[in-house]
Design goal:
With 70 residues, this protein is an all-alpha fold. The protein contains 2 helices and no strands. It is elongated and about 65 Å long.
Length: 70
């Protein structure tokens, strides 16, 4: 099973490299896409951190109340 996962990961990496090379060879300007992704990354990181924080608090309450309920 691990061999198939590694093979899929390598294939996906090769597809990404080939797509990037094709975009550069065909003259596609990707700078606007890169800058917009950079702007969204901060928002995604903030929302992800908030979700993880909430999950940790919920998990902590469950552990504490589970311990006290015994």
């Amino acid at each position: 099973m691990k061999k198939e996962v590694k093979l899929v990961a390598v294939g996906a990496g090769l597809m990404a490299v080939a797509g990037g090379a094709f975009a550069q060879a065909s003259g596609v300007d990707v700078s606007s896409a890169v800058s917009s992704i950079g702007g969204v990354a901060t928002s995604i990181t903030t929302v992800g951190g908030a979700i993880l924080g909430i999950l940790c608090v919920v998990w902590g309450f469950r552990k504490v109340f589970g311990f006290l309920g015994r």
